[in-house]
TrEMBL record, chain B:
Domain ABC transporter: 2-226
The keyword Hydrolase belongs to this UniProt entry's keyword annotation: no
Listed name of the protein: ABC transporter related protein
Family as reported in the entry's similarity comment: Belongs to the ABC transporter superfamily.
Organism of this sequence: Cellulomonas gilvus (strain ATCC 13127 / NRRL B-14078) (Cellvibrio gilvus)
Length: 453, 241
């Protein structure tokens, strides 16, 4: 027997190896997650994800606050940095952990060293990713939780799983350092190629990454489900590919089928899948309060800037009343969104966007929103249809719009209109003329189009 | 327990292995050959790390003849330097385990005890001596109680006492399973092997019992000297030094 054995040795050295049902804890997947987290680069990767996401979340004054859908779509701006970090580290860990365990790769692919690294990264790195979203949501608790928000987050976590799986694939094929570099470059290329919205079908890594408010839009469950399925299939394909490892013919055939199916799914869904990741909700603003005698309704997601906007809007509305332009003042003001365009007799619109980034509400932006007739037909025309018909907004319309806006701004601040480099600006409209144009805009009776040709 | 090789041929770079045919049952089979004869290549084929170009490798265990993945000590076994030994064995054990045959903490400590490393369970792999690392490699090959174990030069780097202990362990393991051991040392063969498979330039040149090999050298008893004479007689008869 070997002399160094500390405990009293059994009669046979192999006696201790017999299965001992009911005694001791079996090595579970949780053990390997802990193993990879403790002995690999995963802890640093998780920290890196938190730092990158924290940097992303504080960009542009954290405009997503209060809007969970936008928050979920804002965080992936960092995927361009997160992806290569995750893939490179996973490749290095795979190469290190797999160097003495290559012979167990040939077993079930879901219980291989590559699978262990993928599970660990998906859980820990994905957990760090989800944590930043949860912290972001806690900063300003969202008033509305999209019913498919979980699916959108799941798809993003599966993207991390795909980055990891690509890393483990290269970590099994080449040396550690080379694998790390190649994996980072490969994932960077993958993000560049497949993270943009496509005209039709599902883009594999399109996760929003948006600087535009999401109010008025919700997640499309069908799109996200297909995307999650594609990502899961691609992760499986990466784990199944084991170059140079012998398997039984039927197993190899099944694995080839998995890889081909995953590839086909990506191609088919990229052409024929659901088109839009976001669906129009047509939700109307519900946070209503009187401002200078006018009911002003805003989306509850923008509650944190509503006070400032209403205060400045009150100045604009009061200026019109005070100077005899009461006809410009609508009975009701509603916030517009990507899917809701308020308008019609007695109702005007405002748009809230720059204010979410911490900028003070601008009089020009508010006035433009109040007068611009975006609820009328020309704004509903699809771009392609307008191009075919040759119809476009007339110069007269733009001139009248300029005069109307200029007039109203002059009422608020007479110095503002003539401030432009000797340019006196458009001539101001008299109260009756302003009322006439405004009425035509509100009722969509203005001749907006220049006509074909 | 049985590992069957049928007309196995494989390619590793420019090296051609085979054909090799043998039925390796319970007991110790020594794989002998000069450097570059193809021992490690054949072992990789046995455990599936290298695909066979032709022929088949079959592993069966128990009366049911069900498939069992061999335990394997690679020639270049290595592990992450800063990882404690027991943790790494747990990682490999998870890969080898199944729902019906889990690898437990007791089993990990059992294999460490069997190779004399119980007191090194928490030591980082990088702080072990070459001989200890080799024994960790043997320990990981024992996880899951495989029906067939393939050990590529398990005694390399071990001192005489450790080598003797490891031989005893191999003999004990081989009571219930097929153990295939590659070695350059005739004394290892004489001490533990029931059968011998000799390769020369990738070709199988001998397959028989240790006593039959000794007889090729003109001896009727098995000892390190007679095994060595038998080995030389076989390879010289094949025209290989």
């Amino acid at each position: 027997m070997i002399a160094e054995a500390a405990p009293a040795p059994p009669s046979s050295p192999y006696a201790g190896l017999a299965p001992a049902p009911g005694t001791g804890s079996a090595r579970s997947w949780w053990h390997v997650v802990r193993f990879v987290a403790r002995h690999g680069l995963l802890r640093w990767v998780a920290l890196g994800i938190c730092l990158i996401n924290a940097g992303v979340l504080t960009m542009r004054g954290a405009p997503w606050r209060g809007d969970l859908t936008w928050l979920i779509d804002f965080v992936p701006i960092g995927l361009l940095a997160v992806g290569p970090v995750v893939a490179g580290a996973a490749a290095l860990d795979m190469a290190r952990f797999g160097e003495g365990a290559r012979h167990v790769e040939g077993m079930r692919f879901w219980r291989s060293p590559a699978a262990a690294v993928t599970y660990a990264y998906t859980i820990v790195a994905g957990g760090a990713y989800v944590l930043t979203i949860v912290v972001g949501a806690a900063v300003v608790p969202p008033v509305h939780v999209d019913r498919f928000a979980w699916l959108a987050v799941l798809a993003q976590v599966l993207m991390l799983a795909l980055f990891t799986a690509v890393g483990t694939l290269l970590g099994r094929a080449v040396s550690a350092v080379l694998a790390g570099i190649l994996a980072a470059v490969a994932v960077l290329a993958l993000v560049f190629l497949t993270s943009s919205r496509v005209e039709s079908g599902v883009a594999l890594l399109y996760a929003g990454g948006s600087l535009v408010p999401r109010v008025g839009r919700g997640f499309d469950g069908g799109y996200l489900a297909v995307q999650a399925l594609l990502l899961a299939a691609m992760v499986t394909a990466c784990l199944v590919i084991r170059p140079g490892i012998a398997r039984a013919g039927r197993i190899r055939a099944a694995e080839c089928a998995v890889v081909l199916t995953a590839g086909s799914l990506v191609v088919v869904a990229g052409q024929a899948g659901p088109d839009d990741r976001l669906a129009r909700t047509n939700a109307r603003p519900t946070d209503c309060a009187p401002v200078a005698g006018v009911t002003v309704c805003m989306f509850p997601e923008h509650r944190r800037v509503a006070g400032e906007v209403r205060r400045e809007l009150g100045v604009v509305l009061e200026a019109a009343r005070t100077h005899g332009y009461a006809a410009l003042v609508p009975a009701r003001v509603e916030e517009a969104s990507a899917s809701y365009s308020p308008g019609g007799p007695g109702t005007a619109a405002i748009r809230v966007e720059a204010e979410l980034e911490g900028q003070a509400p601008s009089d020009e932006g508010l006035v433009l929103g109040l007068v611009e007739p975006t609820h009328c037909t020309p704004w509903d025309l699809p771009v392609a249809e307008a191009a075919v018909s040759g119809a476009e907004l007339s110069e007269e319309y733009f001139a009248d719009l300029d005069r109307l806006v200029g007039t109203w701004l002059a009422l608020v601040d007479p110095d503002a209109v003539v401030a432009g480099a000797g340019d006196p600006g458009p001539p101001l409209l008299a109260p009756q003329e302003a009322a006439r144009v405004m009425e035509q805009f509100r009722t969509c009776t203005y001749d907006f189009l220049a006509g074909p040709g | 327990m049985m590992l069957s090789l049928r007309e196995v041929e494989a390619t590793a770079g420019r090296f051609q292995l085979g054909p090799v045919s043998a039925e390796l049952g319970t007991g110790v089979t020594a794989l002998l050959g000069a450097n570059g004869a193809g021992k490690s290549t054949l072992m990789k084929v046995m455990v599936g790390v290298l695909p066979a170009r032709r022929g088949s490798v079959t592993v069966r265990s128990g009366a049911s003849g069900e498939y069992s993945r061999p335990g394997y000590l690679p020639q270049d076994f290595d592990a992450p330097r800063n990882t404690p030994v027991a943790d790494y064995l747990g990682f490999v054990g998870w890969c080898r385990a199944s729902r019906s045959r889990p690898v437990t903490d007791e089993e990990i400590h059992g294999v460490l005890g069997a190779v004399g490393l119980s007191d090194r369970a928490r030591s980082p792999f990088g702080r072990l001596s070459g001989g200890m690392r080799r024994r960790v490699g043997v320990a990981q090959a024992m996880l899951g109680a495989p029906a067939v174990m393939v050990l590529d030069e398990p005694t390399v780097g071990l001192d005489p006492v450790q080598r003797s202990d490891l031989r005893a362990l191999v003999v004990d393991l081989a009571r219930e399973r097929a153990v295939i051991v590659s070695t350059h040392l005739a004394e290892d063969v004489a001490a533990v092997a029931d059968r011998v498979l000799i390769l020369a330039d990738g070709r199988q040149v001998f397959a028989g019992t240790t006593a039959e090999l000794a007889a090729r050298g003109g001896a009727s008893t098995v000892s390190s000297e007679t095994v060595e004479r038998g080995f030389l007689a076989v390879v010289r008869a094949e025209g290989t030094p």
